Amino acid sequence: MRKVLSTGSVTAVATILMSSFLFNLILKPPSANGLAAAAGGQPLIPYNIDWIFPQLRRPSRLWHIASTGVIGFVGFVSKIVIVWLNKTRVHNIEVLENVLENRPKGTPLLTVSNHHSCFDDPGMWGLLSLRLLKLRNVCSHNVIRWSMAAHDICFTNKFHSLFFMYGKCIPVVRGAGVYQPAVDLCIEKLKLGHWVHVFPEGKVNMTKEDLRFKWGVGRILYESPIMPIIIPIWHIGMETVLPNEPPYYFRLGKKLTYNFGKPIDLNAVMERLKTNPVTEEEARKIITDRIQEEMMILKEETERLHLDYIKSS
């Protein structure tokens, strides 16, 4: 077991217990009724989220102050849970850290990853270095990603909405298609040179099957006025840290593997789409398929790395 536990760190244990309490208080899976579709097959929106988008589009000074607190607290808890209280092996994270620190001003960043647990985001960002010069990568609201979050889980009332909004989460309505405010806002954030994270599977993949990626990521890339740097991420084991079935609390001492892939080059794909124009729907499919191909390669590599990790201990 890690040193932080062997030394009886009361602070770490208290933090993990508090974070588990907060998770159960704030982020409980929706009931079956909450997932039911409204009449006409349209997604049910249990709480009006329209007021959130103007605030995310033009954050106020109060928003920045509150976001600094939420991002800092969640980033620190993620570091404790993923790095200090579990056995995490990380490969090639310098790919992401180098881009965060050295990409040209105004160049956007898009990260994509698989989705196996409700704690995937923000948990994975706890991997970022806590060295003094890199601390802001974990805790700064100016650096950390924008990420889409399910409206029927994270934005079910005013309190939940404020918490996740300050955490730079954008409410996405699953089943509403690629033309919705959440996708529009992601494109706008990339235009401003920000970092956006996407789960192309579109949901927590509890069965770990090979799901066809949603075309939202294709639209984001196709319509982004500036081609972002695209970094794929694959991880294994997060559902053992925070299971998808009750009781919902963080487990300790689990083996996790994270693998950060090389940036995906879409220049040839984009050039082909320009020289041989296709419909927007076809373009989204072509781009999404390419992202999925690269992710499946990274998945196979990560599975080998994780198996080696398990065998070595």
How would you describe what is shown here?
With 313 residues, the protein is an alpha/beta fold. 47% of the residues lie in helices and 12% in strands. The chain contains 14 helices and seven strands. The chain has helices spanning 3-6, 10-26, 52-57, 61-84, 94-102, 120-123, 135-139, 151-154, 158-166, 181-191, 216-223, 238-241, 267-275, 280-311; strands at residues 87-91, 109-113, 146-150, 169-172, 195-198, 229-236, 255-260. A seven-stranded mixed beta sheet has the order 1-7-6-2-5-3-4, with helices on both faces. Helix 10 runs parallel beside helix 11 and helix 11 (216-223) crosses helix 14. Mean pLDDT is 86; it is low at 1-18 and 29-39.
Keywords:
single chain, 313 residues, alpha/beta, seven-stranded mixed beta sheet
Would you summarize the structure shown here?
With 313 residues, the chain is of the alpha/beta class.
Q: How many strands, what sense, and barrel or not for the largest sheet? A: 7 strands, mixed
Mean pLDDT: 86
| Outline | globular
Portion in beta strands: 5-15%
What proportion of the residues is helical, as a percent range?
40-55%
Low-confidence stretches: 1-18, 29-39
Structural class: alpha/beta
SSE series: HHHHEHEHHEHHEHEHEHEHH
Strand order of the largest sheet: 1-7-6-2-5-3-4
**Euclidean distance between termini CA atoms:** 13 Å
Round the Cα radius of gyration to an integer and report it: 19 Å
Q: If helices are DSSP runs of H or I spanning 4 or more residues, what is the number of helices?
A: 14
**How many β-strand runs?**
7
